[in-house]
Amino acid sequence: NGLIALTCLYIRTHLSQVLTRETMAAHVYLHPAYLSRLFKHEMGVTLSDYITSERVQAACRLLESPAIKIGAVAAQVGYPQFSYFCRVFRRVTGMSPQEYRQKVTGQAE
What we know:
single chain; mainly alpha
């Protein structure tokens, strides 16, 4: 579905911003509730789960660079609260951002 592809692209290009169902729906000219149902039907996951997954994947890529502080990574992927970012990251990956960085780079922050 083209509208779902546009929604996914919008999410990937706006990860650092607050992503509401209303703003995403307005971007593809759909009612927010309909977008949620359509997205779940097409993608097999909820909008919020998809956004979380995209944010954590982006964080993983950024964490591969030791030059970027973990707090900056959190902000760049849309988590201004560092502690919340750490909780979400651990829930998704099974490790803290620091542990992930150490695993992929051999370095701690």
